[in-house]
Amino acid sequence: MNTLFCLFAFFSFHEFYVSTSYMEYNDKKQSIQVQKKIFFDDFEIALRKFTGDEYFDIIKSNEDKINLYINNYLSENLSIKVNGKSFELKYLGHEYKNGVINCFFEYSKIKKISSLEIKDLSLISNFEGQENLIYFEKDNKLSTLRITESNLSAEIKF
After folding, report:
1. CA-based nearest residue to 23, from 121, 142, 151
2. Does residue 6 lie in a domain region?
3. How do residues 37-76 score in pLDDT, each as one tens digit?
4. CB-based contact 38:22 (threshold 8 Å)
5. Where does the pLDDT of residue 86 fall: very low under 50, low under 70, confident under 90, or very high at 90 and above?
6. Which residues of 110-127 are buried (b: 16+ CB within 10 A; e: fewer)?
7. Domain count of the chain?
8. How distant, in Å, are the alpha carbons of 44, 57, 70, 105 from that of 40?
């Protein structure tokens, strides 16, 4: 019982920072479709710092402003290379659900993937210990990548 209490006390006072992305290669659409989940309060802090807009509210601000800020932030902080070639992020939108901002975007005109390099700097400069977990699915095979301050990118070979 004491061990359980000590573990609970440790985790109660220890904050953790994580975002998750689910990426799937769609062969028919020749695109990588992405859903990125970020805790809204962490994302709001990062967007305020990124834009210099100290009063920005990710829940209550104008929808066009929210979309602009998210698009600009993700375009700057998330990149992929397929077979050594960079692709541009196409932001599709977001939704707020249960304390999380779900961002939807895709990378288009990808005919074949033999290697994939993902760099995800999201929130890394804002929170010590930030981790960005990426789940990538291609041909019903799932790969898991972990991005940290000491390892800003990861690569998969197919």
Report:
1. 142
2. no
3. 999 999 999 999 999 999 999 999 999 999 999 999 999 9
4. no
5. very high
6. beebeebbbbbbbbbebb
7. 1
8. 6, 10, 12, 17
